[in-house]
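The data are quoted verbatim for reference:
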Amino acid sequence: MAKRNELRPVIKLRSTAGTGYTYVTRKNRRNDPDRLRIRKFDPVAGRHVEFAEQR
């Protein structure tokens, strides 16, 4: 059985372009205690946009 690690929780990154596209990833709470914002490719928009952490 997989160990559930609370230091690296699973988070959803939602596109700020309004397309509704999401990425699922993990983050390290010790290094990034605030909400994460990353520029990634949005295939619905067809370009790189900023993705923000959704809780």
Notes: Strands lie at 10-15, 22-26, 37-42, 47-54.
